[in-house]
Amino acid sequence: MAEVYLDRRRAALRRTQNPDGGWGYFPGKTSWLEPTAYAMLALDGDPAAREAADRAWKLVQSWQLPDGSWRAGATVEDGTWVTALAVTLCSVRRDYGTQFEKGASYLLGTCGAENRPLVRFLRALGLGDKEVDTSHPGWPWRDGNSSWLEPTAHALVALKKSAAQVRSPVLKTRVGEAEQMVLVRRCRDGGWNYGVRSALHVDLPSYPETTALGLLALQGTTAPIEESIALGRHLWLRPKSPLAHAWLTIALRTWGDALPAPDEAEEPPKDIMLTALQALAHPNGNFRLLKTGRPA
Amino acid sequence: MNRRAFLTVTGTGATAGFAGMKLTHRDTPLPAGPAGNSAVAVLRADSYTKDLVSPILGGIRACSPQLADYVKGRRVLLKPNLVEFDSNTAINTDPRFVMAAYEVFRTLGAAEVMIAEGPGHRRDTLDLADQARYFDNVPGFEGLFTDLNRDDVSPVTNFAGEERMYFPNTALGADLIVSLAKMKTHHWAGATLAMKNFFGLVPGSVYGWPKNKLHYIGIPQSIVALNRRFRKTFALVDGIVGMEGNGPIQGRPKASHVIVMGRDLVAVDATCCRIMGIDPAKVEYLRLAADMGHIGTDRIEQRGETVASVRTDFELLESFRQLRLV
Fold it and tell me: Are B127 and A241 within 8 A, CB to CB?
């Protein structure tokens, strides 16, 4: 089968790589780690992109900060949630050197601010809101902030994928607790909101893109999540957002769903991150790179 | 207990923010505010289907006649409130209101009129705009629009005690930012109007979805810091149909049939509060901003309708009943 869809997207990614080796969110824009990471995953194994991938990896490596985190992009000096994506890239490239160790260590040492010792102590005294179960640490967008679904999902993928290489006694606990955090934040319909399941005692809606990330995060879980998978399939059938559709396709494929191929004639979007995610989501794309098991 | 510990132990940092007003005192006297008075125009507007361009132009002439001269040949950024979509309620600035504002600033001679937003929760901004019917109502919308969550950024120092914050270059480079806010109640800040609308200027690519950093700085403090950083601004508030109750997302539509505008965003928000039946002197972020603009009616020159003639009390959550304007 001619893979016009996949080839076009990979070609678009090769064409839009910045001179520094990274990708912006849109062509011609400054390089950011997020679109760079997805472009690298999408191009992994593409013989025509070997040199491009090496240049990109050099750039990503140069963005690690002394504390082990990765900066968000070329013009941003702060380490953020994209550290998880960089750790996943280390695994994909089987580069388990010092940078990987520092990155994984940073992730294991970071949790949502709601789980820091002082806050846990205050909660033990009975202070706090009972509506939100904040007892299971996940990951924040930035150190010092609260845990949210998306950064937790990316950190879980990164750590579960590289579990065999992480020499830390806390790995299994952190993964298990973060999976619990994802589970307790499930919305009433089985999907996920970006944050919690309710606010001010009013149920929040689940969204397709965050439901996809919830499913990605829970790969390998033994918890009953059939309802969540069924919701993911339902949402996949009536796509509105191309981004959500790409994430749902990736997530459901990692759970073994044999979804039909997209319309091969569909042109790649201008959005580089979306182009990369659509390439990953293709039946012959690299969605498998985001497949994980669980730490032994 | 400090703000950070309070925020985290309550878990509210993980939901949407927190009522920073609970941590501060409303009894302290307000600063005098800047010299002079501020003009705010209040216009009646029955629906989005009637001509909005002429009344908005009239309102600008009435409250800010210098704006037309300033805008000529400059880059104007229209910043709507585009948050989430729910067909059962009125969350976002109506796209017909945005289109009218676009035509207004083209008519005033702006060299470029852009539309830009960085939604706080949803990552697919264009899909959100499509659901909210921006593509249907704003011809060439995609070409005019910048997703501020994924724009290139530059650092800014001295922001609310932070060493640096990053902001989108599109916002930093604009000669005028027009806050096209929606008149809504807000379950943490009391009300979300022209000033709170600037949360959308903070890039998700650096601060996440939502921009949880702002919750930790404090919602009222962040609102004020954003408005101190972005000073070349104008407010146009869509109160034709707003939101009451559990805003800014889960409340009910509330028609108040007004458009409120002015250059002093503090005065515009204070006026909107009065129209909504909220006492602006009890809203924490307005108290914190009292040195930047005017809250008191003695310093606000009302143009167009009087507040009393258009006041339509918005339902307030129990926790905000004390804000009711007597």
Answer: yes
In this prediction, residue B6 carries a pLDDT of 46
* Residue B19 pLDDT exceeds 80: no
Q: Round to whole Å and give the CA distance between B7 and A293.
A: 35
CB atoms within 10 A of CB B167: 22
Distance CA B99, CA B101 (A): 5
Q: How far is A193 from chain B (nearest CA, A)?
A: 9
Residues of chain B with a CB closer than 8 angstroms to some CB in chain A: 1, 4-5, 7-16, 121-124, 127, 130-131, 147, 150, 152-155, 164, 166, 187, 205-210, 212-213, 215-216, 246, 250, 317
Instruction: Flag whether B25 is in a domain.
Output: no
- Asked, for residue A294, whether it belongs to a domain, the answer is no
Reduced to 3 states (helix: H, G, I; strand: E, B; else coil), residue B185 is strand
Q: Which of A184, A189, A181, A185 is nearest to A208 (CA)?
A: A189
Residue A295 lies inside a defined structural domain of this protein: no
* A190 within domain boundaries: yes
- Asked whether residue B87 is assigned to any structural domain, the reply reads yes
* pLDDT higher than 50, residue A151: yes
B26 located within any domain: no
Q: Which residue of B has its CA nearest to A31?
A: B152
Is residue A220 in a domain?
Answer: yes
Residue B56 and residue A241: Cα distance in Å, rounded? 34
Its pTM surpasses 0.90: yes
Is A127 within 8 Å of B152 when comparing Cβ atoms? no
Domain tally, chain B: 1
- Integer Cα distance of A203 and A205 in angstroms: 7
- Per the structure, the complete domain to which residue B287 belongs is given by 37-323
Q: Is A240 on the interface with B (CB under 8 A)?
A: yes
Cβ-based neighbour number of residue A191 at 10 Å:
24
Q: How many CB atoms lie within 10 A of CB B91?
A: 22
Domain count, chain A: 1
Which residues of chain A make contact with B150, given a CB cutoff of 8 A?
Answer: 25-26, 32, 273
Give the count of Cβ contacts less than 8 A between chain A and B.
136
CB contact under 8 A, A146 and B13: yes
Q: How far apart are the C-alpha atoms of B234 and B177, rounded to whole Å?
A: 6
- Which pLDDT band, with edges at 50, 70 and 90, does B14 fall under? very low
Could A200 and B317 be called an inter-chain contact, meaning their C-beta atoms sit closer than 8 Å?
Answer: yes
Mind listing the pLDDT tens digit for each residue in A94-110? Answer: 999 999 999 999 999 99
ipTM higher than the 0.90 cut: yes
* Token couple for A174: 């952190």
